[in-house]
TrEMBL record:
InterPro entries: CD2/SLAM_rcpt (IPR015631), Ig-like_dom_sf (IPR036179), Ig-like_fold (IPR013783), Ig_sub (IPR003599), NK_rcpt_2B4_Ig_dom (IPR024303). The gene is VSTM5. Residues 26-125 form the Immunoglobulin domain. The lineage of its organism: Eukaryota, Metazoa, Chordata, Craniata, Vertebrata. This is V-set and transmembrane domain-containing protein 5. Can homooligomerize through cis interactions within the same cell membrane. It is found in: Cell membrane; Cell projection, Axon; Cell projection, Dendrite. Pfam families: Receptor_2B4 (PF11465). Cell adhesion-like membrane protein of the central nervous system (CNS) which modulates both the position and complexity of central neurons by altering their membrane morphology and dynamics. Involved in the formation of neuronal dendrites and protrusions including dendritic filopodia. In synaptogenesis, regulates synapse formation by altering dendritic spine morphology and actin distribution. Promotes formation of unstable neuronal spines such as thin and branched types. Regulates neuronal morphogenesis and migration during cortical development in the brain. Coiled coil: none annotated. The keyword Transmembrane applies. SUPFAM superfamilies: Immunoglobulin.
Length: 256
């Protein structure tokens, strides 16, 4: 016991009152979130002392625990299930957070009334690499989603292009016929005809040689329904029939 007291007296962190000696091996502790911290102290005095720990921070002063060695500790409600006491006066904090940073003051009071206190500074910081890991995972997720969207847009574009090309190829042969039929169907001449005359006119248009001639001409030029409007198709047919009628009239009136 004498050797231990001499060792305590030779240490700079010894605080001694009238009959109480308090030794704090580490007065400043750095920790990270969710870590278990041991606030280690040692004391020597006559009789059985009363040990009290208080917490001081920007939010005020708060009592943590008070007990006598060998008896049950009186732990405050704020630190319930988070504090473990030892007979030498040390305490252990479980799963510390950023709000646990501050000053931890221990007071050792003997039965004669003399007391001694000491302070331990605790600094709790967040783990930076966890934040970086979260950011990296989030960026990787966004990159994967962007790649999937780009691939989906490319596939949809290809499908739309093939569908339009197939439809254009299918409508290439009968595009001019649809233009002429639509022109007759929606024109004012169509409403002036009776039902039987409508059917006869439609059959004559679709089976006449000017229609087939213009259809072959449109196929050679690779015209589609988008390239030839209704008015243009009807104008071409009307112009062709007019030229044909004029040439036939000249042949009839030409001298033998």
């Amino acid at each position: 016991m004498m050797k231990r007291q001499r060792a305590l007296l030779s240490n700079r962190n010894i605080m001694q009152g009238q009959g109480v000696s308090l030794y704090i091996p580490q007065s400043a502790i750095n920790a990270t979130v969710e870590e278990d911290i041991l606030l280690s102290v040692e004391y020597s005095c006559h009789g059985v002392p009363t040990i009290e720990w208080r917490y001081t921070s920007n939010w005020g002063v708060q009592k943590i625990v008070e007990w006598k060695p060998g008896t049950q500790a009186n732990i405050s409600q704020s630190h319930k299930d988070r504090v473990c006491t030892f007979d030498n006066g040390s305490i252990q904090l479980f799963s510390v957070g950023v709000r646990d940073s501050g000053y931890y003051v221990i007071t050792v009071t003997e039965s004669l009334g003399s007391s001694q206190f000491g302070t331990i500074v605790l600094h709790v910081s967040e783990i930076l690499y966890e934040d970086l890991h979260f950011v990296a995972v989030f960026l990787a997720f966004l990159t994967a989603v962007a790649a999937m969207l780009i691939s989906l847009m490319w596939v949809c574009n290809k499908c739309a292009y093939k569908f339009q090309r197939k439809r254009r190829h299918k409508l290439k042969g009968n595009s001019l016929g649809l233009v002429i039929i639509n022109s007759c169907f929606y024109g004012w001449r169509w409403h002036m005809l009776s039902c039987s005359h409508q059917e006869t006119t439609l059959w004559l248009i679709c089976n006449s040689w000017p229609y087939h001639l213009l259809l072959q001409k449109a196929q050679r030029r690779r015209l589609s329904s988008k390239m030839l409007s209704v008015s243009q198709g009807w104008a071409q047919l009307h112009s062709y029939l007019k030229r044909k009628t004029f040439s036939n009239g000249r042949r009839k009136h030409s001298p033998l």
